[in-house]
Amino acid sequence: MTGWIEIGALNDIPRLGSRVVRTASGDIAVFRSADDDVFALDDRCPHKGGPLSQGIVHNKRVTCPLHNFVIDLASGEAVAPDTGCTRVHPTRVENGMVWLSLRQANPAS
Amino acid sequence: MLEKVIKQKLVVIGNGMAGIRTIETLLERAPDLYDITVFGSEPYGNYNRILLSPVLAGEKTVDDIMLNTVQWYDDNDITLRKGETVTMIDRRTCEIVTEAGERLPYDRLLIATGSNPIKLPLPGKDLPGVIGFRDIYDVERMVEASTSHRNAVVIGGGLLGLEAANGLMKRGMNVTVVHLLDTLMERQLDPVAGGLLRKSLEERGMVFRMPAQTQAILGEDRVTGVRFGDGSELAADLVVMAVGIRPNFELARKAGLHCERGIVVSDTMQTYDGRIYAVGECVQHRRQTYGLVAPLFDQAKVCANHLAMKGFATYDGSVVSTKLKVTGIDLFSAGDFAPGPDKEEIVLQDANRGVYKRIILRDKKIVGAVLYGDTIDGPWYFQHLRDGTDVSAMRERLVFGAANLGDGGHAGQNSVAAMSDATEICGCNGVCKGTIVKAISEKKLFTLDDVRAHTKASSSCGSCTGLVEQVLAFTLGGDYSTAPKVKPLCKCTDHSHDDVRRVIVEQNLKTIPDVMRFMDWKTDNGCHSCRPALNYYLLATWPGEYRDDQQSRYINERVHANIQKDGTYSVVPRMWGGVTTSNELRAIADVADKFNIPTVKVTGGQRIDLLGVKKEDLPAVWADLNEAGMVSGHAYAKGLRTVKTCVGSEWCRFGTQDSTGLGVRIEKFMWGSWTPAKVKLAVSGCPRNCAEATCKDVGVICVDSGYEIHFAGAAGLHIKGTEFLAKVATEDETLEVIAAVTQLYREQGWYLERMYKWCDRVGLDAIRRQVVEDVANRKALFERFACSQQFSQSDPWAERARRGVGRNEFAPMAELELA
């Protein structure tokens, strides 16, 4: 896990929307809920790799734009009966700024 | 603080399905509004009365059919007073009085006293061994009798009587059914189907005595037999009277509430006393009483809406369908099938296969259906019946069912029973019959939505929905299926598209959160299905006023390009009427080179598609295309896509009019408009129809004397030729009619409902009347379309490429070196 990195202002992410953070190991999708919670996930749907950042955000979930898989933003798990999981990265918001800590790929996988 | 407001008191008389469904719905809507007390004379919680027959037949137990246990009432803070009877309603003081003399005040009262079995006034009717068929107690007595006695007589050859007879037979008794008329289930069946039913029940060992009138029930201490009108007698140790039910409204009548055959209620389920509501079998609504379960649930929903003080739902009556719950007998009936001078019939009878189908039509619509032997299309007919679909276009093939009507992809398969497990049902997601059957049985699925969620079958294009429904019916067997009368917009709400559109206008709702709040959405901010729908409805209802919610747009419409499987996008510039220039082509070539666009493809709509554009390149690509005078082609939009044309009189030796010029003119007028689903147009210069106008949403065929306007075609999931709408003499009129029909579709269509589906639903005649015959209305529709166009014709590409709209959308938030 990396240390905390400031990635930008909360207001740069639309409510019920998302932004992408580029990293050398792939894009991270950063979501903002209706009540300003912020979540970060790998920008890949566990189903067919669709960019979750492009989906519609609702009730702390996002619907993948490719085949409507619904992913829980807090856990990264697909909502039943779909199955699969996307890696989640810790976030926090301080003084209107969003901070992100990246979890590295598990060496075993 | 005066925080604790005293809750209003709601008293419910009757602990049956209708009353409790009302309370359940009310609790979802307004959990804290009332202190609720429920009186029930039976010593149980609430159970599913329509499943008493399977309990009698030994196929289910009493526990299986319990809907709400006593625990449920506790959990929801409802006082259940079971085994207690209310004997009086004192409307003056707003109190009810119990048998024991206790008085209990109410602010609102709900009467759901249901019905009583009709007991024929025969000599001997009160002898031991004579019972009705109405509640668990009756079933227990019948089961008990079947263990110690041999011969049963069931009086009544209706739905209830036959189910009782079947149950007793399964319990090992010899059963004779006595029926007054010569047709079984005469309220649901015609004589032919009644005869087929009788034959197959006889094959199972049931004996019939009909037409026959019972004159007396014989016996001294206990029933020993029955005597008929002709003097003959039949021995019996059990007599079940199942001749019908009668609404139980004695209490209401004594309280001075207006009653006829039931308690008379309004469309809001109120009695003549506004504080008193009534639902279920005890009510009479628009002269109808109901004894089946689906209407009760419709009523419960409306009643709960008003009890929750929302006050916008109305009950318009129900059309009911019946399925006999006798395992192995396929029987379906719906609607009105009594012969009449204004009705027509389509009949298919195949004695060898034991199949009988009768479809009754009036005014080009299905008003009734009786199916025997092959009931697989029952729900399909019923859907058309309830929707009031104009079926004249499919009349020739109607009797053969849904599978015969032009769906692409399923090669005429219509009998799921005959399919092997490996047969593919859903072509989009590759789901076979066996997979669906397995999911239904293992995961205990009951609805189409369940199947969609668990197997993905029917969850993409939806053209296999009918097949999946059939697999459900086939796998679940005879249990009732209540397809909801109105399809909810999505799982976040019970309300239909039509309800939502109506309430938006009536209540002047202007934002998505306002709609969700007012209409009691079940989720905080909807889902990917309802938000885009609501966004469209608000946009179409309040042009120029509603602020488009970008986060409720599907990605393609939010970024004005089409997402591809690898997350890149495709870009299609508009080519008016399919006409381009060397300069435009050069600009497209330059863009393709500059941005390393891997694929350049000609589309079916006469334009050029640039595929594989990276999202962050989109604004720069658009800027270059804009520079050459090109704008967005809206190839991604639920809106106007293309106007395909042939070259017409300008070049073609057969051309009768300037089809290219007209196409360009239509496209310039209509581009940018949002519609419920995509809209594709075409203009052909002569009847040779090189622009293939007769399979488009709207197509024009030019002829020497003017312009024929066609609409509601399709050439995708479904193949459907267009319907003729109107013939006009000038280009101006053509434009007016096309804009008017599009506007009507914009105002009435359900989100994602293509124009041909909308036409199927509301009817060709209704559309012609409003768009063609009523000229003033056509002009008004045209004006509304033109008005909304003022606000929609701004090139979204230019807004983003040059004016910085949605800048954040296209740039990453941050780029991190590490990891």
Summary tags:
heterodimer; A: 109 residues; Rieske Iron-sulfur Protein; four-stranded antiparallel β-sheet; 10 strands; globular; B: FAD/NAD(P)-binding domain; FAD/NAD(P)-binding domain; Arc Repressor Mutant, subunit A; five-stranded parallel β-sheet; 25 helices; 41 strands; 21% strand
Blueprint of the fold:
The complex is a heterodimer of chains A (109) and B (819).
Chain A: E1 5-9, E2 17-22, E3 28-32, E4 38-42, E5 56-58, E6 61-63, E7 70-72, E8 88-89, E9 91-94, E10 97-100
Antiparallel strand pairs in A: 1-10, 2-3, 3-4, 4-8, 5-6, 6-7, 9-10
Chain B: E1 8-13, H1 17-29, E2 34-40, E3 46-47, H2 52-56, E4 66-68, H3 70-75, E5 78-82, E6 86-90, E7 95-98, E8 103-105, E9 108-111, E10 115-117, E11 130-131, H4 136-148, E12 151-155, H5 159-170, E13 174-178, H6 191-203, E14 207-209, E15 214-219, E16 223-228, E17 233-235, E18 238-241, E19 245-247, H7 250-254, E20 263-265, E21 276-278, E22 283-285, H8 293-307, E23 321-323, E24 331-335, E25 344-350, E26 355-362, E27 365-372, H9 378-387, E28 424-426, E29 431-432, H10 433-442, H11 448-455, H12 465-476, H13 497-506, H14 512-518, H15 530-541, H16 555-559, E30 562-563, E31 569-571, H17 582-594, E32 599-602, E33 608-613, H18 618-627, E34 640-645, H19 659-670, E35 679-684, E36 698-703, E37 706-711, E38 714-715, E39 719-720, E40 723-728, H20 731-748, H21 755-762, H22 764-773, H23 775-792, H24 796-801, H25 807-810, E41 814-815
Parallel strand pairs in B: 1-2, 1-9, 2-5, 9-21, 11-18, 12-13, 12-18, 13-14, 20-22, 34-35, 35-36
Antiparallel strand pairs in B: 3-4, 6-7, 7-8, 10-19, 15-16, 16-17, 23-24, 24-27, 25-26, 26-27, 28-29, 30-31, 31-33, 32-33, 36-37, 37-40, 38-39
Could you explain the architecture of this structure?
The complex is a heterodimer of chains A (109) and B (819). Chain A is mostly beta strands and 109 residues long. Chain A has one domain: Rieske [2Fe-2S] iron-sulphur domain (Rieske Iron-sulfur Protein). Chain A is built from no helices and ten strands. In chain A, the strands form three sheets. A four-stranded antiparallel β-sheet of chain A has the order 2-3-4-8, with no helix packed on it. In chain A, a hairpin with a 5-residue loop joins strand 2 and strand 3. Chain A is globular and about 40 Å long. Chain B is an alpha/beta fold and 819 residues long. Chain B folds into six domains: 8-114 and 247-307, FAD/NAD(P)-binding domain (3-Layer(bba) Sandwich); 130-243, FAD/NAD(P)-binding domain, CATH 3.50.50.60; 330-476, BFD-like [2Fe-2S]-binding domain (Arc Repressor Mutant, subunit A, Orthogonal Bundle), CATH 1.10.10.1100; 497-545; 556-632, Sulfite Reductase Hemoprotein,Domain 2 (Sulfite Reductase Hemoprotein, domain 2, Alpha-Beta Complex); 640-792, Sulfite Reductase Hemoprotein, domain 1 (2-Layer Sandwich), CATH 3.30.413.10. In chain B, 31% of the residues lie in helices and 21% in strands. Chain B has a five-stranded parallel β-sheet. In chain B, strands 11-18-12-13-14 form a five-stranded parallel β-sheet, covered by helices on one side. A five-stranded antiparallel β-sheet of chain B has the order 23-24-27-26-25. In chain B, strand 34 (640-645), helix 19 and strand 35 (679-684) form a beta-alpha-beta unit. In chain B, 45% of the residues are buried. Chain A binds chain B through residues 2, 5, 7-8, 12-17, 19-25, 27, 30, 34, 48-51, 54-59, 63, 65-68, 70, 81, 102, 104, and chain B through 453-454, 459-460, 523-528, 531-532, 550-552, 554-555, 559, 563, 565, 567, 808, 812-819.
